[in-house]
Amino acid sequence: MTVGLIVIGIVGALVLLGASLMFFTLMAARHVEKLAPPIGKFVEVDGARLHYVDRGAGPVIVMVHGLAGNLRNFYELIERLSVDHRVVAVDRPGCGYSSMRSGEHPGLRAQATLIAQFIRKMDLGQPTVVGHSMGGALSLALAIDHPDCVRALALIAPLSNVERTPPKGLKILRIKSPFVQWMVAWMFSAPIGKLIHRASRKAVFAPEPVVESFDTSGGGLLGLRPWAFCAACKDMVAIARELAAIPPCYPTLMVPVDVIFGTQDAVLNHETHGEQLVTALPQGNLHLIDGGGHMIVVTEPDEIADLIRQSTGQTTRHRSTSAI
C-alpha cells in the first residue's frame, strides 16, 4: 500500500509539473505575441489561414521567409522596397501568425503550392519572388511546379542543395517524432528557450553582430512559441525528405534567377548553395556580399534592396530606416 501511494504521489507530482510547465510556456508565448503582434491581414487558402502584409504600389514582389522565421524577418526590406514596389510578404503555415485550418503540416512542395494559390487568389499575376534560406528552396519549387506564378526569382542565402548535417544553431530542430517535438516544445521551450534562442540567433547572424531590433521588429521572438517550434521541426524533416528531388529540375527553369550570398555565411555555404545553383540554371546570376553572413536581409538591407530592384527592372536607390 505504501509503495502504491508513493507511485501515485510521484505520478501526481509529474502531472502537476507538466501542467505548470505548459501553463508557463503558454503565458510566455502570449507575452511574445504582445511584443510582436500580427501586422497584416488574413486570407483563407486551401485549408490554411495565411497572415500577410501588402505594402506599396508598382511591380509586385512576393517574399517568402526561411526556417523558423516569419514575414517580419523582411522588415528592413519591406520598408525600402515598398517605396516603388507592391511588396507582399507572407507567413508560411505554422510560422508567424499563419496556421493550417485542416490537414497535416504541409511539406516543402505542398507549401509551394499554397503560395501559388495565394498568388492567384490575391491576383498578383507573375511577381518577382524573393526567398530567404529555406524560403529560397520553396521559391525554387514554386517556379518549377507553378511557372505561371513567377516572373523572376531573387534568392537570398538560399538552401538549394541537400545538407547532410543541420546547420549550426538549428540542429535542435531535427526531431522526427511528433511526440518528442511536442514534449520539447511544451515542456522545455519556456525554461530553456531563451538560452537556445540566444545561441541560435548568434549562430545565424555570425560572423556579423546580432541586430537587437530583430527580436521584436524582425519577429525573432515568435519562434519561441511552442507551435512555431513544432512547425520548424516538421519543416526540417520535410526538407531532408524532399529537397533531393528539386536540384535535377534546375536546368528546366526558364526564369531569371538572382542569387545573393554573404561570403562569410556560417549557415549555408555560398559555394554549395550559390555557385553550384547558378551553374545549373539557364539564367542564373550570383551576387556576393563580402563579409556578409546568413542574415544579410537585416544586416545589409540597402545592398539587398538594390539587387532585388535589379531583378524587377527597377534600379533607383531609395532609402528608408523606419521599422514595421
Structure, explained:
The model is unreliable at 316-324 (pLDDT under 50). The chain has a single domain (32-312), classed as Alpha/Beta hydrolase fold, catalytic domain (Rossmann fold), CATH 3.40.50.1820. Helix 7 (270-280) links the parallel strand 8 (257-262) and strand 9 (284-289). It has helices at 2-35, 75-81, 108-121, 134-145, 178-205, 226-242, 270-280, 296-299, 301-312, and strands at residues 41-45, 48-55, 60-64, 86-90, 99-100, 128-132, 152-156, 257-262, 284-289. It is of the alpha/beta class. Helices cover 43% and strands 15% of the residues. It is globular, with a radius of gyration of 20 Å. Strands 1, 2, 3, 4, 5, 6, 7, 8 and 9 form a nine-stranded mixed sheet that branches.
Identify the overall geometry: globular
What is the CATH fold-level name? Rossmann fold
Structural class: alpha/beta
For the termini, the CA-CA separation is: 63 Å
Radius of gyration: 20 Å
What percentage of amino acids are in beta strands?
Answer: 5-15%
Mean pLDDT: 90
**Biggest pleated-sheet summary:** 9 strands, mixed
Number of domains: 1
Number of strands: 9
